[in-house]
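User: Okay, second chain of the day. Same drill as before: sequence in, structure tokens out.
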Amino acid sequence: MFPFRQTSRPAGGPQYVVKSGVYTTVTIAALCRVSQTFNVRLLLSALIQSIFVTFSQIMAEKSFISGMKTAIFLLAILGHAAANLLMPGIYTEVVEIQQGKYQLIGVPQASLNGTVVQLEYTCDPDVELEFDTEYVLRSSPCDKEFFNTKENERRQNLVFYFNETNQNHIPDTFDYNEIVYYKSPIQTISCKGSHGRFVFPSPTGPMTVKQVTPVHVDRVKRDANGLGSFHPAQSIPRDGIYYMIIKVVGKSFPLNQNANTNVTISVQWKAPYGFLSAIDWPLLRFYKIMCVFYSALALIWVYYCIKYYRDILRIQYWIGAVIVLGMVEKAFFLSEYATMNDTGSSIDGILEIAEIVSCAKKTMSRVLVIIVTVGYGVVKPRLGQTLNQVAAVGLVYFIFCSIEGIARVSKNTVEATRQKQFAALPLVLTEMIIFYWIFTSLAATIRMLRLKRNDVKLNVYRHFANTLAFSVLASVVFMLWSMIYHIFPTCRVDWKELWVDTAFWHVLFCFILIVIMILWRPSQNNQRYAFTPLLDDSEDENDQDEIFNAFAPGYDILTARTSGSGAETRKLREAEKEQERKDEAIKEDLRWIEENIPTTIADTLIGGLDDNEEIESKQLEVSKML
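Assistant: Same drill. Structure tokens below.
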């Protein structure tokens, strides 16, 4: 058997294969999201080709929004980033000591200079069991060498790395010049003599630098010998990815064959700042900053809502809910990372709860963008049947997101990769449907506002469309950078920057949220963004009549008949011009009312006039009776 605590890290970004063409891109992305392997060269060429086709279509369209419809598929593909799995600072493995077999346990960790490693053994103090143990600690500049390996490769590498003859060699799949290496002396441990607990003594010397050359790693047969206060065993001299291989060999066994021969091996990696790995440490500071940032956003939003509480729009309540959920989400992640840094282990269930809260925030944010793009409260007073569709899509997205998130954080083994990818497939399909809905609704709303000539609301939606376009472009550029520097290289030397793959999507989300907050912020002229039936309906009816009449059969003939000759015709023309001037004056007055006087005040004034007229009519009736 091969006891090994798997700590593989996800690749920094989504693993998709895309081809040119919009609908082909959707199909390939959905299928390749659940594929365990892919051709990265094909991925790069296909993605570049797809980007070229997409933005060529955008530039060729007369309307920018209509071109944006084709960009939503890239956004759906690029918006699903692989989350950064937390690496525990304390690893525990239970090993059964067997006669005639030895155990090899491998524990990788990203560490900074000054990190100390403690190795502790725990066994039954009443059992007369003796075993020999030793370990090898070596470094690598490549993140993928120790983490992203398959089971058979791990088995081969354990034997290869522990073999003392290979201290100057590395697998031929990697190419670098030197490592830091240390091999401990053999220690004999007696469970009864050590009272069931033994801490590996301090090293006999520091780790040394070795010049290495690539060699081929021989295959290991499956039925070969089995693999399977702070007192540091070694101190890390330089930053790098380290791999500790522990060997345990049974030496003396109890006469009772049913006696407990299990040994619990605990490896603790403690850096100067705590137990977090060097890859996860920047995310602790990042989540602290995000908590403060979301708290500031919440305070600012509450202040403006209280200041203009009489004119609050419905959509501004949704924005506040998204801010609160974002703050709670960051608080959960900060709690998880802080606990891991302080204790070296995670509290059961906290990470799962954080993922569920994150899914609630994502669901609320997508629902918010949908109701913004359909014009809820701006060009239409109520959603109607759209409300049921939005609720159904939001519920489906939340369920799929929760399943994918819990599967991702609960199963941290390479063997569970395929299960994670199948769990993510429904989520990706739902994301694509939502993105398509967002951009088509945005195009329809902008078209309606353009027909109504409502420049105030039209400018708001144009700014929002430009924000989404920038988000798509930023996502494409970032994913290209991530693939070039984090996915394609066999030796990923910039492993210290992997935290950016997680942080970028949080920052991009905050950017979009801030833009929405600015565009739909509470103000004293809040009602200029709200639905106004007097202006919107009348203009809408006139526009619809004009469009309908223009396409009606015989419309040109009828207009020609009405434009006869003579004095009567001139009078009709003058009357029409006079009526047009009056209509234009009325429109200017209505436009001024919409831009300068809130609807609530206008309603109050109109209601007051109605009351005065009613009082006067009553007085007139009373005077007649007298």
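Residues 90-270 form one domain.

User: Thanks, on to the next one.
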